[in-house]
Amino acid sequence: MTEFLKVRPGSKSILVNNDNQPEQIHVFDRDSIDAVNAALAARRPLLIRGEPGTGKSQLARAAAKRLKRAYVPFVVDARTESRELLWDFDAVARLAEAQLAGVHGKDYADKLPNPLDLVNFIRPGPLWWAFDWEGAAQQAQRSKTPLLSQPDGGDPKNGVVVLIDEIDKAESDVPNGLLGALGSAEFTPQGFSKAVTITGAPPLVIITSNEERALPDAFVRRCLVLCIELPNTTAELAKYLEQRGKAHFPKADKTVLKEAARQVAADRKVAIAENLRPFPGQAEYLDLVRTVLVLYRDSPDQQKEALQRIGNFSLRKHQGTGPCD
Question: What is the pTM of this model?
């Protein structure tokens, strides 16, 4: 039976909170809760659209943590092929095995029956883990692929959340390649006679797009779509950022959070008017606040005084707007 996301709007999930990485905290809102639950109920992938730095990827991990599901992230780039989302062939390992077999001859082959069998070099991709975790683990062992760790304590017995991040960076065959596997709920890796099918709870597949490239219509219509947008007006954006600042930095001086939010909102307005992308937003706001809190840990007055100077590096990143001029 599918478990749904049962959190209240405004609830927080702490994803990373250590000295080695910047803190990562996701704040759930009503739309994201409804969108995740709708995708679970409809058994459709959830496509999250929006500009970078708005928490699209964090939503997937936060949902997995709240649902106590295993979490499998996959970042797409310009070289990604559609089959990598299902399985991948380790040609380098097979070549090395062939060279060993050539050196050692028959004795080597006797010790390892069919050492060059194609299935020994097929590595499970994210959807394989999502469809059949136990089968993927067995294939990982066979192909000498590392098992996936779960630092958030997710249990694949509860199901899997797959993040396919930044799909708009890939060619159109990548999203189109997902349609068959997700539509039929099965796929057959090369060299296998039996298809990989869904066992246990259906996976939750979350796909993000920064809108850098249009996605195929056939793909989009198979998804549920959540658009994450920052508030349009300067005042609303400043209030939104200040609320996020309180969630991420609960011990910070409120006047520092408010002034940083005002500064980012004002700079974003100028950037939009002059079409200076990327527009400053939530990510830049958190970087700005984090920086002054670290540099001037015990002095809110110094933190406020430093906001403008640090903003030259974290907000104004274009020629004609920053410290290079």
Answer: 0.89
Which tokens go with 40? 């679970």
E strand spans, the chain: 12-18, 21-27, 46-49, 70-75, 87-89, 122-124, 160-165, 186-187, 196-197, 204-209, 224-227
Torsion sign (Cα): 47, 45, 69, 76: negative
Cα–Cα nearest to 203, from 84, 65, 39, 74: 39
**123: CB partners within 8 A, 6+ apart:** 87, 88, 89, 90, 139, 140, 143, 145
User: 153-175: per-residue pLDDT in tens?
Assistant: 999 999 999 999 999 999 989 99
- Take residue 116 and report the two structure tokens written for it: 């060059």
Query: Judging by beta carbons within 10 Å of its beta carbon (0-12, 13-18, 19+), is residue 219 exposed, middle or buried?
Result: buried
pLDDT tens digits, 67-121: 999 999 999 999 999 999 999 998 666 666 666 665 665 555 555 556 667 888 9
Structure tokens at 115: 């050492």
Say which amino acid occupies 141: Q
